[in-house]
Design goal:
The structure holds two protein chains of two kinds. By secondary structure, chain A is mainly β. Chain A has no helices and eleven strands. In chain A, strands 2, 4, 5, 6, 9, 10 and 11 form a seven-stranded mixed sheet that branches. Chain A has a four-stranded antiparallel sheet with strand order 1-3-8-7, with no helix packed on it. The termini of chain A are far apart. Chain B has no helices and twelve strands. The relative contact order of chain B is 0.33. The chains are: A mainly beta, B mainly beta.
């Protein structure tokens, strides 16, 4: 089944304790992205990647790191989480399609609570 | 600044009536516009997109959207609403053709009343 998977789905942690949220897609997509969803703010893009070893900042990259060492995986790293990073996180991926907008396929989400 | 606006936090409509969820955008160049839907406790699902061509775009589940360049709008419509259409709807725009950078609206909750 074609899908984007995220782990964990739910996470409670404490301020300053490093964590990683994994994202994996099995559709051979070139493009991948991370978003956070907050009430009243919609989805905001954190980082995106257009190829292996190529990443770029979205609108809210502060406090986050990403890496793209292989095509299928795009982990999101919070080196020192803070309470303002409590949010619902989504990973998304797309094929690279010349000349047209890419349809994004979203993972199920990871709900993070930082105490 | 590039932006997407969904002016209504919530839209209520009776089942069987037509529905409209509004979206306006501000980007430089030709926009790539999208609508996504989020059902409770689920990820986002693609509904439709406008890239070029006919201003009326048809998508999944009977939804359609009309691109209006002069009004910089991309409103989502459906002729006859179903209770099962109740969900959170997001409008999104791709910022430019050379990046994978997207801006999403704040979302509109659609409630279809039986």
């Amino acid at each position: 089944e074609a899908q984007v998977t995220q782990n964990p789905r739910y996470l409670i942690t404490v301020t300053g304790k490093k964590l990683t949220v994994t994202c994996s897609q099995n559709m051979n997509h070139e493009y991948m992205s991370w978003y956070r969803q907050d009430p009243g703010l919609g989805l905001r893009q954190i980082y995106y990647s257009m190829n292996v070893e190529v990443t770029d900042k979205g609108d809210v990259p502060e406090g986050y790191k990403v890496s793209r060492k292989e095509k299928r995986n795009f982990p999101l790293i919070l080196e020192s989480p803070s309470p303002n990073q409590t949010s619902l996180y989504f990973c998304a991926s797309s094929w690279k399609v010349q000349g047209v907008g890419e349809t994004q396929y979203f993972g199920p989400g990871t709900r993070l609570l930082v105490l | 600044a590039q932006s997407v606006a969904q002016p209504e936090d919530q839209v209520n409509v009776a089942e069987g009536n037509p529905l409209t969820v509004k979206c306006t955008y501000s980007v430089s160049g030709n926009p790539y516009l999208f609508w996504y839907v989020q059902y409770p406790n689920r990820g986002l699902q693609f509904l439709l997109k406008y890239i070029t061509g006919d201003n009326l775009v048809k998508g999944s589940y009977g939804f359609e959207a009309e691109f209006n360049k002069s009004q910089t709008s991309f409103h989502l419509k459906k002729p006859s609403a179903l209770v099962s259409d109740s969900a959170l709807y997001f409008c999104a725009v791709r910022v430019s053709s050379g990046t994978y950078k997207y801006i999403f609206g704040t979302g509109t909750r659609l409630k279809v009343l039986a």
